[in-house]
Amino acid sequence: MKLLQKKHKRIIIAKSDVHGWGAFSRYSVKKNEFLGEYTGELITPDEATERGKANDLQLGSPYLFTLNEQVVIDARRIGNKFRFLNHSSKPNCDSKMVIVRGDHRIGIIASKAIEEGEELFFDYGYGPGQVDWCDSNKPRTNGGTKKSKKIGPSS
């Protein structure tokens, strides 16, 4: 319901100690509380591959999020502040795919209590051979995209 109402928690963008820019909670958040929606341009996986290569050369970090087998969200140009959540293998947020009025959407949920000013992280779903920013402070390899965890239909 909060996706329909666009009731996002306030977050701020600031330099991260982990990598580049990060998203930080403006207020304390309870476990399982809805933070907001990851938004952006809907593109095909083939287009995402091309944009990922170009973004890696230009920026070193694409804002691509795999929604499902047919659609990837590119938040680079028209995404919101949630694109600045950095990766961690020990995140404080989860991404959840929900179906809202027939559309697939990505919600960001607190996986544990988060203090005011704490940086927000979620697991990008990196596979073997990809580097963890949080553990090594090195860029990932293999041009992977963020992936959501699917949950049941919602309205």
UniProtKB/TrEMBL annotation:
Residues 146-155 have a biased composition (Basic residues). Residues 135-155 are annotated as: Disordered. GO terms for cellular component: nucleus. One of its GO terms (biological process) is heterochromatin formation. Pfam families: SET (PF00856). It comes from the Eukaryota. Residues 9-125 form the SET domain. One of its GO terms (molecular function) is chromatin binding. SMART domains: SET (SM00317). This is SET domain-containing protein. It comes from Arabis nemorensis.
